[in-house]
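Hey L., structure's done. Input below.
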Amino acid sequence: MSKLGLQKAKRMRAIVVAANAAGLSADARHDLQIDLTGKASLKDMSFAEVTLVLDHINRLTGYKGHAGKPKTVDADLQLQKIEALLADLKLPWEYIHSGKNGPSMVRRLTGKDRIEWATAEGKAAVIVALIKRAEKLKEA
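Output:
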């Protein structure tokens, strides 16, 4: 199985667990999946569709995920840059993942709940925002 296939399988399991935790029956979960993707079965969905369903259920339940360092930093140059910028600003990873009075920086700039789920363009937007923050702090 490919790496993407393994990630999809993990997310499929996470959907079932999250739906159960939210009190959704299997039928209600299937109805939700059809509403979001047009497909009742998780197996028939693409990775992006599975991610969409998981993100939606997590929003319904208020689950924000852990706000620690992503496991994939070593394999992603953009995540390494974000890590370096956060370190320079003396900020934890939680800074980009949690919003005090609304959506987090990651949610606003990428549409995803976790930076590791964002596209390259989304990660670039976070990098630009962190650079602008650093520049503002230098001016002050």
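Helices lie at 3-21, 26-37, 47-61, 77-88, 94-97, 105-110, 120-139. The radius of gyration is 17 Å.

-- N.
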